[in-house]
């Protein structure tokens, strides 16, 4: 890396203030200035979309798609007068990810303002915030923020005395990971089972109740007021040219100081680990790590110098995902870790597509068998072969891919460890105490 | 119409239908489980993967049921990548399948079996225990569910949602723990439950009356028409060893019944299997009814015409156009028995009118008459020909025996009368033993075909009536 990245905190700039979730504190710290700027400053909706496009903001929900481009897919209301919606994806449930929670609990007005600006840009009059069911405090804080904003004339009719009207409704998820998939989320909002829809049609043409809809992540929307206030050039000055801006990196696992840290995209993973998280815990060394949540696949310790941006991590053979780093120290077994991950996808597959429904279960069974010491030599090839049958793009949504990617990764980077499990007929790192735990766990699964 | 190329052949296809429909129309055998032409495509089973090339982009493997056709699209259903994707999909579908084909009623007409044979790898790689679920869950009077065989294609769920518009089934649970269930374990209701067993691509939903009755490869199948109401659904009559009717199933006909039929019609077949049949002819002698050659029975009937003049014709509503025209030649007044409307009438298929050929018979000059009124009319006649399948049954066998002694009654029926009322009884074939046409409520012609031979000594009714007409010609001309 040539020049050191510019460090500046904005997303989390307010979270440590007392009562940061209250409107008064938010306003005192520059809150709702962006909304005022677009509503009364003569910005047309098209200009706001262009601004977000120019900023290069990429969605923070995992896929990293250009937010401005996504917004521009919404049809022109003059040609398509149907009602239109914004669905805010706050169903954060990827194992390892806990960044949206910080924003919703500590800075809910930032999200509300982001929603309002997005609705103005896309000429949406109704937004839904789909909050993960387990996030009770997030739900309560955002709900209270909306109520405060409504009382202050910031949500509802005639916002800030202009003709702009926007309602924001809350919805609580019921504990299914699949409802965080954008079409599964829309089905769930409609009151149906959260089964992802085949695409096409895409949400911008046929979304909630068949109407034009955009689905955005909480962190993505929380970036928007800052872009409006400080401009696209400022945003571009942070991060890398292709992945500008700051990102909330949640680091967890075997580290001294786990937490959510705001850092520019493109920061070296080692810097996050060593500076923010104070390194691997108990003086141990790093063995493997997930760069962006359970579905991104383990990278070996050797790749810790990779830059945390979309393209660099892709080059390193993984994905930025939600930038949720999970670190495993030298005492951890990657087979055991994969068993846990595979179990999660087995449990959360919606069951529509054959490959995913049967494949996630099968992967889980194989990893569990390997970890129990009942693996066969051919299981390793079988894992690759099954993962090839499940992805890429072979199913309605990406959950199947999310189970296949870490499987490929562990076969690629930790093949020796898999083979050792087969050769020894047991987990080389497990204590007998652990084994009894897994037997109980398996019985539960 | 949109021009696309399927397996090297340029064809014109309907742009409103998904790619899989175009493939099937043009004889490409793309497998399918969740897709059914009568239901909305959901694209969940993923078996219908084909390779598609559009423009300059490299070819992609897509599911044909959720891919719209586009001008100039190049479709390769036989691409190695498509075959590989389908093989992989089948391996997943078979991972938890119980493979109990030897005891499965679906074996022989099972899509899982057929496509596994076509595309599968022949050997399982799973050593994991298979799912243990309910093997024989009763879903009411008609359907039994085997959850272990189910591949969760959701056709049955969509059938009730989209076709009958009364949702009754759902997929419950997540992922590999999903099962098909009814709400609160309630039994299925309605007159269309049997269809879900037809559309089930595997042996998960089976018909109670057909369970363990026959191996489907022993059934001979004949295209025919259902006679239980004036809809005249196109059906297949399935006969075991050319004798016993084992099953009636709907045959796709977009003009009449699409892909469906009602349970009332579906389960009407036991009457074709009940005996004893009237094999040959009977005449009333000194010791009651005695067997007689058909020729002699016809002579006797002709003598009656000569003695009493033109007969009153009371015919069965199951008479075909051909038979009714032949009966018409006998002259005299023509009535057809029209029983009370059925309470099963609905706004889907069942018309509530039990006369499958009402429209045809009316066009030929037969007047509808309720069985009670028919009996009144018969009391006033000297000679009555009661013609066709179940005509006597509709009048009531007991009621027929109360007819005045001077009335001469000639019965043409499939079964002998239980009590003596007729001078002559002549055996006729039932609906599975004859060809002919019924005209349904909308004017569509439904064909009957011969699924098995009539009992010995029974000639086609058309020929019997023509012979009778020839013998009585002189008398009828008067």
List keywords for this structure.
heterodimer, A: 445 residues, alpha/beta, Rossmann fold, Ubiquitin-like (UB roll), de novo design (two linked rop proteins), 3 domains, five-stranded mixed β-sheet, four-stranded parallel β-sheet, 9 strands, 44% helix, globular, B: 478 residues, eight-stranded mixed β-sheet, 14 helices, 23 strands, 24% helix, elongated
In short:
The complex is a heterodimer of chains A (445) and B (478). Chain A has 445 residues and is an alpha/beta fold.
Give the SSE order of chain A as H and E letters.
Answer: HHHHEHHEHEHEHHEEHEEHEHHHHHH
Number of domains of chain A: 3
- The overall strand count of chain B is 23
Oligomer: heterodimer
The total of helices of chain A stands at: 18
The helicity of chain A comes to 40-55%
Taking all residues together, what is the mean pLDDT of chain B? 94
The name CATH uses for the topology of the domain at 281-477 in chain B is Rossmann fold
Unreliable stretches of chain A? none
CATH architecture assignment of the largest domain in chain A: 3-Layer(aba) Sandwich
Rg of chain A, nearest Å: 22 Å
Strand order of the largest sheet of chain A: 6-5-9-7-8
Helical content of chain B stands at 10-25%
- CATH classification, class level of the largest domain in chain A: Alpha Beta
The number of strands of chain A is 9
Net shape of chain A: globular
| Structural class label of chain A | alpha/beta
Largest interface: A-B, 35 and 32 residues
């Amino acid at each position: 890396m040539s020049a050191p990245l510019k460090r500046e905190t904005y997303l989390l700039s307010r979270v440590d203030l007392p009562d940061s979730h209250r409107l008064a504190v938010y306003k005192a710290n520059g809150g709702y200035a962006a909304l005022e700027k677009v509503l009364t400053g003569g910005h047309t909706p098209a200009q706001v979309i262009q601004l977000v496009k120019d900023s290069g903001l990429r969605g923070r929900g995992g896929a990293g798609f250009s937010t401005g481009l996504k917004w521009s897919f919404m049809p022109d209301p003059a040609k398509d007068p149907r009602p239109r919606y914004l669905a805010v994806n706050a169903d954060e449930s990827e194992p390892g990810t806990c960044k949206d929670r910080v924003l919703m609990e500590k800075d809910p007005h930032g999200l509300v303002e982001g929603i309002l600006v997005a609705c103005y840009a896309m000429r949406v009059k109704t937004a839904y915030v789909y909050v993960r069911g387990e996030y009770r405090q997030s739900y309560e804080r955002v709900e209270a923020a909306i109520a405060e904003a409504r009382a202050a004339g910031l949500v509802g009719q005639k916002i800030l005395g202009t003709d702009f009207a926007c309602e924001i409704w809350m919805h609580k998820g019921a504990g299914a990971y699949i409802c965080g998939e954008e079409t599964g989320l829309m089905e769930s909002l409609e009151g149906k089972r959260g089964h992802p829809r085949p695409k096409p049609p895409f949400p911008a043409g046929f979304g909630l109740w068949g109407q034009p809809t955009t689905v955005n992540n909480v962190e993505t929307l929380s970036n928007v007021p800052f872009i409006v206030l400080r401009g696209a050039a400022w945003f571009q000055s942070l991060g890398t040219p292709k992945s500008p801006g700051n990102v909330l990196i949640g680091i967890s696992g075997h580290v001294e100081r786990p937490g959510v840290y705001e850092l520019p995209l493109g920061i070296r993973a080692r810097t996050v680990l060593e500076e923010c998280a104070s390194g691997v815990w108990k003086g141990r060394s790093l063995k493997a790590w997930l760069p962006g949540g359970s579905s991104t696949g383990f990278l070996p310790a050797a790749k810790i110098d990779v830059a945390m941006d979309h393209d660099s991590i892709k080059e390193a053979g993984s994905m930025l995902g939600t930038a949720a780093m999970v670190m495993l120290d030298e005492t951890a077994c990657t087979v055991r870790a994969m068993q846990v991950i595979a179990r999660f996808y087995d449990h959360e597959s919606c069951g529509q597509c054959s490959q995913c429904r049967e494949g996630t279960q099968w992967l889980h069974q194989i990893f569990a068998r390997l970890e129990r010491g009942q693996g066969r030599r051919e299981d390793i090839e079988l894992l690759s072969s099954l993962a090839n049958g499940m992805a890429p793009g072979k199913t309605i949504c990406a959950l199947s891919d999310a189970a296949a990617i870490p499987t490929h990764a562990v076969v690629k980077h930790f093949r020796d460890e898999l083979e050792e499990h087969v050769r020894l007929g047991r987990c080389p790192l497990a204590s007998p105490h652990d084994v009894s735990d897994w037997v109980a766990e398996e019985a539960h699964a | 119409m949109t021009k696309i190329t399927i397996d090297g052949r340029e064809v014109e296809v309907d742009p409103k239908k998904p790619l899989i429909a175009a493939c099937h129309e043009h004889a490409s055998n793309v497998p399918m489980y969740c897709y059914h032409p009568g239901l909305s495509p959901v694209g969940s089973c993923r078996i219908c993967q084909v390779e598609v090339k559009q423009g300059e982009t490299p070819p992609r493997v897509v599911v044909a049921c959720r891919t719209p056709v586009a001008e100039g699209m190049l479709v390769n259903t036989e691409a190695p990548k498509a075959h590989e994707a389908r093989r992989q999909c089948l391996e997943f579908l078979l991972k938890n399948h119980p493979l109990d084909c030897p005891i499965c009623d679906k074996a022989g007409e099972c899509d899982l079996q057929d496509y596994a044979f076509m595309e599968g790898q022949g050997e399982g790689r799973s050593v994991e225990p298979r799912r243990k679920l309910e093997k024989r869950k009763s879903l009411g009077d008609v359907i039994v569910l085997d959850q272990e065989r189910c591949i969760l294609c959701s056709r049955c769920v969509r059938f009730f949602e989209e076709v009958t518009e009364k949702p009754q089934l759902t997929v419950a649970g997540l992922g590999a723990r999903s099962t098909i269930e009814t709400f609160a374990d309630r039994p299925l209701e309605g007159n269309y439950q049997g269809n879900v067993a037809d559309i089930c691509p595997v042996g998960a939903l089976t018909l109670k009356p057909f369970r363990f009755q026959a191996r489907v490869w022993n059934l001979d199948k004949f295209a025919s028409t259902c006679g239980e109401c004036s809809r005249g659904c196109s059906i297949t009559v399935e006969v075991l060893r050319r004798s016993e009717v084992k099953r009636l199933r709907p045959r796709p006909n977009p003009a009449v019944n699409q892909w469906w039929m009602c349970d009332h019609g579906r389960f009407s077949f036991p009457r074709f299997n009940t005996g004893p049949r009237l094999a040959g002819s009977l005449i009333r002698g000194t010791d009651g009814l005695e067997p007689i050659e058909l020729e002699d029975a016809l002579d006797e009937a002709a003598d009656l015409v000569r003695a009493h003049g033109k007969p009153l014709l009371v015919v069965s509503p199951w008479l075909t156009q051909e038979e009714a025209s032949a009966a018409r030649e006998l002259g005299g007044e023509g009535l057809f028995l029209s029983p009370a409307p059925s309470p099963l009438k609905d706004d889907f298929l069942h018309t509530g009118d039990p006369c499958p050929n009402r429209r045809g018979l009316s066009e030929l000059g037969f007047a509808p008459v309720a069985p009670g009124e028919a009996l009144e009319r018969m009391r006033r006649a000297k000679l009555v020909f009661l013609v066709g399948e179940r005509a006597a049954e509709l009048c009531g066998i007991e009621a027929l025996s109360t007819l005045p002694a001077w009335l001469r009654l000639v019965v043409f029926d499939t079964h002998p009368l239980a009590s003596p009322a007729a001078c002559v009884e002549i055996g006729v074939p039932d609906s599975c033993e004859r060809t002919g046409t019924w005209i349904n409520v909308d004017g569509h012609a439904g064909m009957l075909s011969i699924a098995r031979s009539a009992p010995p000594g029974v000639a086609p009714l058309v020929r019997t009536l023509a012979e009778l007409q020839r013998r009585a010609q002189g008398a009828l001309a008067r």
